[in-house]
Design goal:
Blueprint: H1 4-28, H2 30-83, H3 89-170, H4 175-186, E1 193-195, H5 211-218, E2 232-234, H6 242-245, H7 258-273
This protein binds zinc ion.
The site of zinc ion has 8 residues, from loops.
Length: 279
């Protein structure tokens, strides 16, 4: 009933699933990296927005100061005219004081306006420089994002290839084995099939397998599972994933968060030996 091919196929599905998990982790990094690529441009654009806002505030302040100075000058002119019509010294002194205060206020307004104009000139220069930097940064975003999108496509294509191969291989697996495999896989277990070691131990939990079961496994008599950890045991060699070996290398994931890349290589290491799940 259980063919020699079956556990070997399950091991291939297991290898494919390891690879699929790696590709999934890779795919999950792309959204974040697409944003990351845009960040420098966004930061410069936001700063530019703030400085531009400040600039227009300063320009409004200058206009307000100039209007205030104009008003005061008009009042000073009226006072000048009154000065010609004063009838006594006391009145003349009072107008004099008022005129004096007004002229000093006008001077202060003008001085403040000049300072602001100077600040405006410098800010305008900053706006110009920031604008140029923002434009440069923005121009770099699109090509980098295009590369990332094309990398992401390469990962999705590989995923499709792996999923297709998985379906193909599973079709050769007997229903009981497939059920066990899918149940384990569905519960998040990474090792479903493993080798019976030469010393008669389970390749996953290293528990010793009873002699009679060992013989059944060696004779390839059906689906034998470790009584301790539940994995399917086999003496068949681990298959290579032949038709995927010719596929081109996937682009590297430069900005993968450290944690994801660390657990990714752990999975790969586990898959490489296939017998040392708890190494
Ligand atoms: Zn075991």
């Amino acid at each position: 009933m259980t063919s020699t091919y079956t556990t070997g196929s399950l091991r291939e599905v297991q290898k494919l699933d390891e690879r699929i998990r790696e590709i999934q982790k890779g795919l999950a990094t792309f959204d974040e990296r697409l944003l990351e690529v845009e960040e420098p441009a966004l930061a410069l654009e936001s700063e530019l927005g703030q400085v531009t806002e400040r600039l227009s505030q300063m320009k409004a302040d200058v206009r307000r100061l100039e209007r205030a100075a104009d008003d005061k000058r008009a009042r000073a002119e009226k006072l000048d005219q009154r000065m010609n019509k004063v009838s006594n010294l006391r009145e003349e002194a009072a107008v004099h004081v008022e005129l004096d205060l007004l002229k000093r206020a006008i001077d202060a307004d003008e001085h403040e306006a000049l300072q602001l104009l100077d600040q405006i000139r410098r800010t305008e220069q900053t706006v110009e420089e920031l604008g140029a930097s923002a434009r440069t940064a923005r121009a770099e975003v699109e090509p980098r994002q295009r590369t990332l999108r094309s990398d992401r496509r390469a990962y999705s294509d590989r995923m499709e290839l792996l999923l297709g191969r998985r379906t193909e291989v599973l079709a050769h697996v007997g229903p009981p084995e497939r059920r066990v495999y899918e149940a384990f896989h569905g519960s998040g277990r990474k090792v479903v099939v493993t080798s019976l070691l030469d010393d008669g131990a389970c390749g996953h939990c290293f528990g010793v397998i009873p002699l009679q079961l060992q013989n059944e496994i060696r004779r390839r008599e059906g689906l034998i599972r470790c009584e301790n950890c539940g994995v399917i045991l086999t003496t068949e060699p681990e298959p290579a994933i032949q038709d995927l070996e010719g596929a081109p290398d996937l682009p590297p994931l430069d900005a993968v968060p450290k944690a994801a890349s660390a657990s990714g290589s752990e999975v790969a290491a586990e898959g490489a030996t296939g017998e040392s799940g708890s190494a």
